[in-house]
């Protein structure tokens, strides 16, 4: 029995990656410019979008592309704990770079140099090897010095890519850190360093920062991910099967039904494909099968997503959700409705579509609310 090629718990593997040709083209061009520009003019990219839209999957595909160019790449998955302040952020970055080098195929001499570089970097910053927050020098200045020293150690590579996944944690927890990071990476080019900064984050990770400056917005080229087109949905469903050599075909009417139900949202597309594969691994998945197992798939989807979505809403917010489900677009007549709607928007359960206009974040969530009434 073949393993299910549709993974819903993790980002999709680069070998199964589909769609996003425009975004990958932009990344490839910016990488080429970073590698070949004279003097060095590295580019920085922010991949933004809502949950489940494929930000990390695209980041991993970019990582694969850069690996094919023999670039040095360090990918760091951020957490709120790693972003308490800029010193802790830098500590984790240096630590991750060290681990990346030691896990790589770089020569032992470079690995030994990197170990000394790590110790020296922490010493310069006033950070001992344990996670202390005592700082005796400007962390941004010393971070820049550390990256310059790193580049001298690995300078035979075409470029060095620092990738931060879930960058919104830094933007939310320590917004000033964005300015510190911008200052560091802007100055690195003056020392002929070819560092490319790639980050992923929520759609609003910059707009939520009060008083954010235009230079900081322009520091990143934004790749805003939206739902798949129908053609991308077809590719996303077919490519894993072809790659795995599965003797299974999704009837075009089923793909159309998945697209209509999911509106091309990658997470929901993968969820339907995953569960349909669980019901049939060979032959043709037709509309009759899709309709016969739809309720079971929706029950699984509700348990995986919608029950948790509904649970994070307060009782008053649930009242708003149910009223919006009944009359979408109409502001419910509830006490403190504006405040409640603002909270629901921040929880990603409701989307503001215009002045005084709101809707539930996805029709499938709307269907869930209709079913639990």
What does the model show?
It is a single chain. This protein has three domains: 20-224, Rossmann fold, CATH 3.40.50.300; 228-311; 314-373, Arc Repressor Mutant, subunit A (Orthogonal Bundle), CATH 1.10.10. The chain has 15 helices and nine strands. By secondary structure, it is an alpha/beta fold. Helix 1 crosses helix 2 (55-68), helix 4 packs antiparallel against helix 5 (139-154) and helix 10 crosses helix 11. A hairpin with a 2-residue loop joins strand 8 (350-354) and strand 9. The radius of gyration is 23 Å and the shape is globular. A five-stranded parallel beta sheet has the order 2-3-4-1-5, with helices on both faces. Strands 6-7 form a two-stranded parallel ribbon.
Shape-level CATH architecture of the largest domain: 3-Layer(aba) Sandwich
The CATH class designation of the largest domain is: Alpha Beta
| C-alpha-based Rg, rounded | 23 Å
Give the overall shape. Answer: globular
Structural class: alpha/beta
Strand order of the largest sheet: 2-3-4-1-5
Structure keywords:
single chain, 373 residues, alpha/beta, Rossmann fold, Arc Repressor Mutant, subunit A, five-stranded parallel beta sheet, two-stranded parallel sheet, 54% helix, 12% strand
Provide a quick synopsis of the model.
The chain has 373 residues and is of the alpha/beta class. Helix content is 54%, strand content 12%. The chain folds into 3 domains: 20-224, P-loop containing nucleotide triphosphate hydrolases (Rossmann fold, 3-Layer(aba) Sandwich), CATH 3.40.50.300; 228-311; 314-373, Orthogonal Bundle (Arc Repressor Mutant, subunit A), CATH 1.10.10.10.
């Amino acid at each position: 029995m073949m393993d299910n090629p549709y993974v819903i718990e993790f980002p999709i593997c680069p070998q199964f990656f589909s769609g996003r040709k425009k975004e990958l083209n932009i990344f490839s061009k910016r990488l080429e410019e970073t590698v070949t520009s004279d003097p060095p003019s590295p580019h920085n990219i922010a991949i933004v979008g809502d949950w489940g839209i494929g930000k990390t999957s695209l980041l991993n595909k970019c990582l694969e592309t850069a690996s094919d160019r023999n670039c040095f790449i360090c990918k760091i998955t951020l957490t709120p704990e790693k972003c308490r302040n800029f010193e802790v952020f830098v500590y984790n970055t240096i630590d991750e770079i060290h681990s990346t080098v030691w896990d790589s195929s770089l020569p032992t001499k470079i690995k030994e140099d990197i170990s000394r570089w790590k110790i020296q970097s922490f010493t310069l910053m006033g950070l001992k090897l344990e996670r202390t927050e005592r700082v005796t020098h400007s962390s941004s200045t010393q971070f820049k010095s550390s990256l310059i020293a790193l580049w001298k150690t690995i300078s035979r590579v075409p470029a060095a890519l620092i990738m931060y996944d879930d960058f919104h944690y830094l933007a939310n927890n320590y917004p000033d850190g964005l300015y510190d990071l911008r200052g560091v990476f802007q100055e690195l080019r003056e020392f002929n360093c070819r560092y490319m900064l790639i980050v992923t984050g929520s759609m609003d990770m910059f707009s939520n920062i009060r008083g954010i400056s235009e230079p900081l917005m322009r520091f990143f080229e934004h790749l805003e991910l939206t739902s798949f087109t129908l053609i991308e949905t077809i590719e996303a469903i077919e490519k894993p099967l072809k790659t795995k050599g599965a003797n299974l075909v999704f009837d075009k009417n089923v793909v159309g039904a998945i697209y209509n139900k999911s509106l091309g949202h990658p997470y929901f597309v993968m969820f339907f494909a995953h569960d349909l594969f669980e019901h049939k691994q060979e032959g043709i998945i037709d509309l009759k099968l899709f309709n016969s197992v739809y309720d079971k798939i929706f029950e699984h989807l509700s348990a995986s997503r919608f029950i948790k979505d509904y649970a994070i809403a307060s009782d008053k917010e649930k009242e708003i959700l149910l009223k919006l489900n009944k009359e979408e677009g109409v502001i419910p007549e509830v006490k403190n409705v504006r405040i409640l709607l603002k909270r629901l928007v921040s929880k990603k359960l409701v989307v503001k579509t215009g002045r005084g206009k709101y809707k539930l974040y996805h029709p499938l969530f709307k269907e869930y609310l209709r079913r639990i009434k």
